[in-house]
Amino acid sequence: MMRSMYSAVSGLRVHQTKMDVIGNNIANINTVGYKRQSVTFQEVFSEVIRGASAPQGGRGGTNPQQIGLGVSVGSINTIHTKGAAQRTDNPEDLMIDGEGFFVVSADPNLENRYYTRAGNFTLDRDGNLATADGYKVLGYRIDENGDLTSEVVPIQVMRSETVAPTATSRIEFRGNLNSNVEVGTPDAIHRADTIIKDSLGNSYTVTFRFTKVGPTEDNPERVWTLSVERITNQSTGKFEEFINENDEPGGNVIDGNNIVQLVFDENGKLIGIKDASGNDVNRVSLNLSELGIKDGTFGKDGSDEILLFDVDNMDEIAKNLTQYANDMDAKPYALDGNTSGKLEGYAIDASGTVVGIFSNGEMKELAQLMLAKFDNPMGLQKMGGNLFIESRNSGEPQYGVAASGGYGTIAPGTLEMSNVDLSMEFTEMITTQRGFQANSRIITASDEMLQELVNLKR
Question: Are residues 175 and 323 both part of a single domain?
């Protein structure tokens, strides 16, 4: 039988294989995160009719004479170039802009892991972020202190999640005290308040009083005193007064006597903080232990003290609080403290951090997506459902988080489209069709030659 016929048969087979791959690529033109495949051919082997000979004597060398015996599939490679971005505005749709794969698993122990570029995720009834087939998306747990741990957990957004109330531990003063007001006049007194929280989330309104007391004939210093006038429990309406019958500061709410002196220079800059006796102080706190509330505490770690001034940061304090010939707008601001809150929504940022948004306005990091990358992504084995598994030639998975260590960033509300190029696929289709057609002609021609051979007998 003729060798050309069998070579052509192998050509038909490999071109059919290539057409199958092209058909699959085109079928997945709109599959999220699909990576196209490419086929290459290689010759099988060649029959040696005569071997090569070296030059000898006056005769030159001769080359080998070989006849090829067909073709086979050399490789079917998965091309891991990034697909185009498709904006969906769905917060559960995620795209990796760069290197990496999402890590998913359906194993209760999270050990049997799969890898995917398709970020069309949804939330199940338990709040688990999952693929369309129910594989849970994996990430790293963030502890109560907001620190990222190495513990691998399913990404979960629980609607029952709550954030505990926090007590106020710091108050900052900002604004201006009008330098033009006269000492001893009603305009020399300025009141301003802020709301603080205790450890149970109860709200209290603290009313501060600024009083201009200098310069005077006896004291050339430009001084304002700061004191607490009233603290009101917003839940009960009860309040504590810290001004005595002479309309002067009383009690021991601020530094033991409820008064602190703010000293300014001739340019309106705060240059010093003193106690009631005129001694320089380094730290001024609001002491709320006098309130005698039944439950709950203020301050950091239940200390019942709220920091007002830390003179080590005098430059920052002086920048915030001034005495210029301008409107009186000095005001205290509680820098922390909040009520408890329930989870109302969530967002995923570019680093893959899942941030919970709570009803009290606070935001809390819940977890961070895990990404994986491989030394040879082409070595990954497709498992269907947009999933890959590692193989002996892909290398071990290297785990990390987005936007660090060479991993791409996360684009929320976006999906990665298929990287199939239709113009390329149609061109490959044409060349594959012609290759198949040419091989079929070889079989036809070889058949005619055999027919002629048979006819020699007639």
Answer: yes
